[in-house]
Amino acid sequence: MTNNINTKSKEYYIQKTVAEDYDAERFTSLGGKMFDMFEKNVVISSLPQNKNAKILDAGAGSGRFTIEMLKKGYVNVHSCDFSPAMLDIIKSKVSTFGFQDQVKISREDVTNLSFSDNYFDYISCIRVTVNLDTLENVTKAIREFYRVCKPGGVVVFDIVNPMSIAYFGSKKNSMITMKKAKAIIKSIPGIRVKKVFGSRFLSQTAFEKTPASLMGVTNNIDKLFSYLFPFFCVRIYFVLTKD
Q1: How distant, in Å, are the alpha carbons of 7, 186, 238 from that of 241?
Q2: Contact present, 80 and 105 (Cβ < 8 Å)
Q3: For the domain 8-242, what is the CATH code?
Q4: Bridge partners of 107?
Q5: For the chain, domain boundaries
Q6: C-alpha–C-alpha distance, residues 147 and 197, integer Å
Q7: pLDDT tens readout for residues 78-100
Q8: pTM of the model
Q9: How many CA atoms lie within 13 A of 106 on its CB side?
């Protein structure tokens, strides 16, 4: 792995305290737990049936999805992140569950992966593109996922949408619309959109502040609006296949 880019997000996430507090700050409230379950289902539902398939959890962060993959019995998982502090969290979780023989852990830059072409059967990259800071880096990452994915393989990633209520008018260049993401994908020969859908018409912060008594109703309303107007959702998820 060659460190091609230095971004503010990289500087932030390499901090030990940030890594240690990552899960607790996002996924301990009722709203946070609900969204954690939703994202895990997004990743798990598209996994190949073959438990020996080569799986990449790119930008794995605290290893939320890596651990779920291992719990499901996948024995050839590669978990990578740029932050050494995050990698330490992943290693600790893997050790706790006794999954050391099923996973490889390494430091990688998603815009310049060290893996060979056509290597993985499945690649997930969740909550990462928004932290790449520029549209150029987002494009590089998507192209890298395509490069290291085998023909017939699947790539799952998400974007944070500047057209959403939560981020409307944001100037952060790595926030991109559904239309822009589709244009990037279309520019890559041999890759197809299998599925695209949005989640969270309201922000995760709004859910975290919602009283438990109203959570069910709020969640159902949010699901309806997310289904009807995915291009206005906070997060938009893409499931791609490589020809």
Answers
A1: 29, 12, 10
A2: yes
A3: 3.40.50.150
A4: 81
A5: 8-242
A6: 24
A7: 999 999 999 999 999 999 999 99
A8: 0.92
A9: 13
